[in-house]
Amino acid sequence: MTQAKCPVCGCEQFYVKDPDDEFEVYEFECREGDVCFDEAADSGQCPEIDESTEIFCNACAWHDRFEKIK
Ligand SMILES: [Zn+2]
Asked: Is the pLDDT of residue 51 over 90?
């Protein structure tokens, strides 16, 4: 099982910002290339993540496109 890690700090938790509300964030992990949102998140509200979506590390200041961690 491969789990995506932050290239800077190795953290496996990331988040994306809600495109409609930058103060709303959704945490997720990336397992085997699949995005797994935090169970607390309402799946109906989770934003789509594609290769070019900007994602943020949960533990440090790294952020880049989703394709960089796949
Ligand atoms: Zn990091």
From this structure: yes
Q: What domain range includes position 23?
A: 14-68
Please give the model's pTM, rounded to 2 decimal places.
0.88
In a domain, residue 7? The reply is: no
Lowest pLDDT segment from 10-19, 29-38, 39-48: 39-48
Instruction: Compute, in angstroms, the gap from residue 19 CA to the centroid of ligand 1.
Output: 22
Sign of CA dihedral 46, 50, 52, 55: positive
Expressed in angstroms and rounded, the spacing between residue 8 Cα and the centre of ligand 1 is: 5
Closest residue by Cα to residue 49 from 15, 7, 5: 15
Indicate the number of domains in the chain.
1
Q: How far is the CA of 9 from the centre of ligand 1 (A)?
A: 4
